[in-house]
Design goal:
10 strands, eight-stranded parallel beta sheet, alpha/beta, single chain, about 45% helix, globular, two-stranded antiparallel sheet, TIM Barrel, 12 helices
Length: about 300
């Protein structure tokens, strides 16, 4: 039996947050419905942050209360603090994400808090989530390299992974925020993290800024990781981190994994069609390395289907 790999789609939050265009709640729901129809069963849907600071995420409560197929899809909400956590849970969130950048300067530039302060806030949220029976997940941002401080020690990342896991996080997500990782460093870091927590509780978030996202996925697979963040069409990146643009495209990851014999439960045929819909919504060209090939296959299949009909 083929192994299952979970694709966690972050386009509706991480992808849209870095775009200049602000979509309505209805448009974001249209995007999410398309993703669900493709078979994607894990989606970061929004964040409960100030609409003034991040207008792309306005209407989070309204959106959350209209999410489709909530019984079968793991929807996650990003929360920056306990107030955001409480708002998310009140809206119906059962999975919440926190983001801990593992360098001082990144936290100061991003949220005007020290690393120590941010770690405490994230720990408090994870503890509260555990007490409430909510699934808490902790991102460790700039886990390989910080745009301000350079290369990050694996010891530092491992220590914060242990801290967040001990606080109650049920998933630790290793985030290559500026796309600086390479397969050797991925293996080194995950091997060290595996000494303090099971890799079944670890996911990876790779950026394709330098074209190595898929190679890094392969390296993480060899270590035992079976969950990865992706964004449809390669949308997004961190708007607060220089050079961070370029989330790994969902279609690239699914194509590689399926051809390697893993199961994702996602229809590439339907996903290809949804990319075209999303391009219309965000008014820009999207698509990962494989998109042009997938689009040709999609058009050929549709043409053959029309002939058969």
């Amino acid at each position: 039996m083929s192994e299952w790999v979970t694709i966690n789609e972050v386009g509706p939050r991480d992808g849209l947050q870095s775009l200049g265009k602000v979509l309505t709640v209805e448009q974001r729901l249209q995007l999410i419905q398309g993703l669900v129809d493709c078979g994607i069963a894990a989606i970061e849907s929004t964040s409960f942050v100030s609409a003034k600071a991040v207008p792309q995420m306005a209407g989070a409560t309204e959106l959350y209360r209209q999410l489709p197929n909530v019984a079968n899809v793991r929807y996650a909400a990003l929360v920056p603090n306990l107030r955001g956590y409480n708002d998310a849970v009140a809206a119906g969130a059962r999975t919440v994400n926190v983001v801990l950048s593992v360098t001082d300067t990144m936290n100061l530039k991003n949220i005007n808090m020290s690393l120590e302060q941010t770690a405490q806030v994230c720990s408090d949220i994870m503890k509260q989530a555990k007490a409430d029976g909510v699934n808490g997940q902790a991102y460790l941002a700039v886990a390989f390299e910080c745009p301000f401080e350079g290369a990050v020690s694996t010891d530092v990342v491992t220590e914060f992974a242990k801290q967040m896991y001990s606080a109650g996080a049920q998933k630790i997500i290793i985030a290559d925020t500026i796309g600086a990782a390479n397969p050797a460093r991925v293996i080194t870091l995950l091997t060290q993290i595996a000494k303090v927590l099971p890799l079944s509780q670890v996911a990876c978030h790779f950026h394709d800024t330098r074209g190595m996202a898929l190679a890094n996925v392969y390296a993480a697979l060899q270590c035992g990781v079976r969950e990865f963040d992706t964004a449809i069409g390669g949308m997004g990146g961190c708007p607060f981190s220089p050079g961070a643009s370029g989330n790994m495209a969902t279609e690239d990851a699914v194509l590689m994994l399926e051809q390697m014999g893993y199961k994702t439960g996602i229809s590439l045929h339907e996903l290809t069609a949804v990319i075209g819909t999303v391009e219309g919504l965000v008014e820009r060209k999207l698509g990962g390395h494989s998109y042009n090939w997938l689009k040709r296959q999609y058009l050929q299949n549709n043409e053959q289907g029309a002939h058969c009909g």
